[in-house]
Amino acid sequence: MTIRHIALFRWAQGVTPEQIASVEEGLSRLPAAIPQLLSYSYGADLGLGAGNHDFAVVADLADDEAFRVYRDHPEHQAVLAVVTPLLADRAAVQFTLPS
Amino acid sequence: MTIRHIALFRWAQGVTPEQIASVEEGLSRLPAAIPQLLSYSYGADLGLGAGNHDFAVVADLADDEAFRVYRDHPEHQAVLAVVTPLLADRAAVQFTLPS
């Protein structure tokens, strides 16, 4: 089985493009730092739907243990320390991908 | 480019496993009905994180036009007619996958 982890962010009022670029720069370094990441994608909402969140992160991991390694990895925690103060809202799900 | 569409659902109080199974049954028929779906995955939250939503759908589509075909397709609209009355909350993002 593979676990797909999804996190959707809504930025707080006043968050700047420079701050979002800093988040993306941090995320871009994670696949090389965390070998448990089988696939990693993220990006800003395209504006195709009303009421959408602003940004998505999708991480595919082999199992629960790999998810926990990713979640607790110091490089990931460092990115979260940048992201968390910028959030108005976060929505997340982890589900099992069909094999 | 590929567009990745994500929708996260939080079920309303009182939604039953049978109703969720009906949603999954409807979703399972969409890849055969909508050739624009390059990849389609969905599933219930695994309970690994506090405060998570309950269910995720991830659809990969070639471009904006393919996303709109999926969004407006009668078979997809029929599933939405089942899903929407069951929702307490929905969060969504469409973003561009790296090529």
Automatic annotation (TrEMBL), chains A, B:
Q: Domain of life here?
A: Bacteria
Q: Which residues form the signal peptide?
A: none
Can you give the residue ranges of the Stress-response A/B barrel domain? 3-95
One Pfam family assigned to this protein is Dabb
Q: Which PANTHER family match?
A: BLL2683 PROTEIN, STRESS-RESPONSE A_B BARREL DOMAIN-CONTAINING PROTEIN
The protein in question is named Stress responsive A/B Barrel Domain
Organism this protein belongs to: Marinactinospora thermotolerans DSM 45154
